[in-house]
Write a structure and sequence with these properties.
single chain; 300 residues; alpha+beta; 8-stranded mixed beta sheet; 7-stranded mixed beta sheet; 7 helices; 15 strands; 35% strand
Length: 300
């Protein structure tokens, strides 16, 4: 017998068991400790009140993590992870969790729900589509390793822009800041996130790049992850703006590892184009599967 319960009525040990068992055969195997699992609720703004667990004969069988927050005065929701343990698949557990989740969204007055799913996970995508989710974009994981061509870096640094360095949260008031990106690519979900803002010759803010630095055990920056980048509308040289910001980072930190996380191919098309011009390439799993997700939304 399948029973669905709010996560607030369950133990975290049961929740962790359901989560880890559901993801143990995933495209990117995931296994979290209890500390790592509980930290996700704070870092990703997830809610135990709005998340659900499935039990089959009193055994943890599946979980769906959810978060709800206000964006510009309206409630938005995010499915931050769904997993069903292998022995309990094809029993309708995923569908039961989704039904409970959508009912909770409606009760809470959510106007838009979003989620991400790996493109190769066709069964999950079809289930979400069955309940009204639509694919609105493809999310890319790109990488760059090694040095950059000197001419690219030199050319971009000769442009007439100046730089303003800020924390991620400081760009939310930019008139051209975009919320139309995945939940974890928004400024308030990037732990220790930073923003570089480009200023033109009139000292006007014309573009930004949102990123996160990662450090080695001795405190040296060993990688940078890009989450989004945007340029003010009606800027004729918009590519140059992002080129300046990217080249500034590449010159600042040198030939370390650079990655993107869930960057929307259409909504951040200019950033994707510039990254590829610098030599960024698609990222693949060890099994040769291209790391690529779909960005899905449902209007309620």
């Amino acid at each position: 017998m399948i029973i669905i319960k709010p996560l607030s009525q369950c133990s975290f040990s049961d929740a962790l068991e359901a989560f880890n068992k559901g993801f143990e055969d995933y495209y990117i195997p995931i296994e979290l400790s209890l500390d790592q699992f509980t930290c996700r609720f704070g870092f990703d703004q997830l809610s135990v009140d709005h998340s659900f667990m499935a039990f089959y004969n009193n055994t943890p069988a599946g979980i769906m993590l959810n978060g709800i927050k206000k964006v510009k005065g309206k409630k938005h929701a995010w499915n931050g992870g769904t997993s069903v343990a292998l022995p309990y698949r094809k029993m309708g557990i995923g569908e039961a969790l989704l039904k409970a989740t959508l009912e909770r969204y409606q009760q809470q007055g959510v106007v838009e729900a979003s989620l991400e799913a790996f493109k190769v996970n066709e069964k999950a995508i079809h289930l979400y589509q069955k309940y009204g989710y639509e694919i609105v974009d493809t999310l890319l994981f790109l990488k760059h390793r090694g040095s950059f061509h000197a001419s690219l870096l030199k050319k971009k640094n000769q442009l007439t822009y100046s730089l303003k360095r800020r924390l991620a949260k400081d760009i939310r008031n930019l008139p051209f800041y975009t919320y139309d990106v995945p939940w974890k690519n928004q400024f308030d979900c990037i732990r220790d996130g930073e923003a570089f803002i480009a200023l033109n010759e009139k000292n006007e803010e014309v573009g930004y790049l949102l990123f996160q630095k990662n450090f080695s055990s001795i405190g040296i920056v060993n990688s940078v992850t890009f989450y989004q980048g945007s340029v003010k509308e009606h800027i004729s040289n918009s590519e140059d703006v992002l080129g300046f910001l990217l080249a500034t980072i590449f010159n600042m930190y040198g030939p370390i590892a650079y990655n993107t996380y869930n960057v929307p191919e259409k909504r951040n098309s200019l950033l994707v184009k510039k990254l590829k011009s610098f030599g960024f390439q698609d990222l693949y799993t060890d099994e040769g599967i291209k790391l690529e997700q779909v960005f899905m939304k449902k209007q309620l």
